[in-house]
Design a protein that fits this description.
Blueprint lengths: L2 H10 L3 H8 L4 E4 L6 H6 L3 E4 L15 H7 L3 H11 L8 E5 L3 H16 L7 E5 L7 H22 L5 H26 L7 H10 L5 H13 L11 E6 L6 H7 L4 E6 L17 H10 L10 H14 L4 E7 L3 H16 L4 E7 L6 H13 L2
Parallel strand pairs: 1-2, 1-3, 3-4, 5-6, 5-7, 7-8
Amino acid sequence: MSAFDDLQKHYRQRDLAARQWKKEGGKVVGYFCDNVPEEFILVAGLFPLRLSGDPWGDTERIGNYSEQGNVFSREGFVASMLHMILNGKYDFLDYLIIPHARDSIHRLYTTLINLKETDPTLKIPELSYLDNLHTTFYSAGIYNRDRWFGLKKQLEEWTDKEITNERLSQAVAVTNESKRLLKELAALRATDPPLVSGVDALQIIGSSMFMLKEEHNKLLKEYLTGVGQLPARNGARLFVEGSPLDNLQFYEIIESCGATVVAEDNCWGNRIFDVPIDMASDPLEAIIDRYNNKAPCSRMYPLSRRIEYCLRNALESKAQGVIFNIYRFDDIQAWETPDEIKELKEKGIPTLYLKDQPYLIAEPEALKTKIEEFVQGI
C-alpha cells in the first residue's frame, strides 16, 4: 500500500484511527470547525478528531427529535453531523468540544445538553462549549484569551494532567510540521502545470484531521518524495470558494470536466495550514495568538479581511476562474459572495456563482453541465 493509499483510507474511514486509539485504552475528543486548538488536546494525551458529515448517511433517527432537528435542517452538513451523533456513528467519543462558530454549530451545544436530559438512552459524550468573539478588536482578543485558558483548564480536569509549556512546545513542533508539509502540497497544486489534483489534495488535507499528526506527517513526507513522478495536469485552473466541503462530490464533478482545482478558500482546505504558530514567544500565548488571528472565515469581522483573503489566494494560485459553491441556507457564506465576485471581476478573473446548492448532489449531471460551460468559456 502506498502512502497516498493509506491517507486515502483514513479519509474514507474517518473514525479508523480514533477507534483504534480507543481500543487501546485511549480517550477521544471530538470537535467542530477549525478554531479548536488541537495542540491542547494532544498535550492532554487525548485523540483529537474533527467531526464531519456524510451526505449519503442515514438520517432516520433525527425524526424522533423534530423540534431540535428543525433548527439544523436548513444547513445540511450540520444536520448530518447531528444525525451521526444521534444515530450512534460517533458513540466512541468521550468528550465533545463545540465552539462558537456559525449559529447552527454553536446551537448544537444546548440541543445536545437538552437531549441528554430528555433521552438518557442516547450516547452523547461529555460536552464543553468554547465561546469566542468574531472580531479582530483588542477587547475581543482579551475575551477570547480567557476562553482558551478555560478550555485548557477543562482538558486538565478531564485528564488530570497539567498542560505545560514544555509539552506544548513539543506539540506545536508537530502541528507546525504538518502545516509546513501541507504548504508543500499546496505549492505542487499551484505550479504550472499542476502536479496534484484537487480531489487528491482534499483527501490528504482532510485525513490530517482524522489521524494523529505524527503518523500523518510521516505518510505525507513519503508521498511528497514521490510526487515528482506524477503526470502534469492539463486544463483550466480553478479556485473554489464557498461553503465547507467535507466530502469529494464537488471536486470530483469539477475535475471530471477536465479542470483542476488548484486552491480553495475553505475550512476543509487551505485554511487549516495557512497560518503556523510563531514559537518566538511563550508557547501557550503563541497558540492562543494563532487561533485568534488565523486565516479568516465567514463569521469574522471585518468583511474586508475575507474579501482580501479570497482575492489573494485566487491570484497566488494563478487561477483562471473561480467557482462559488454556496449551500442552501448558508446565509453567512452568501453574505460575502457578491463583494468577492466584484473584486475578482475587477482583476479579470471570471466567476461562476452556484447558489442554493444541496449538501448531497443528487443531480451531478446537471451541475456538471453548468461547470463544463464555464470551463469552456475560460
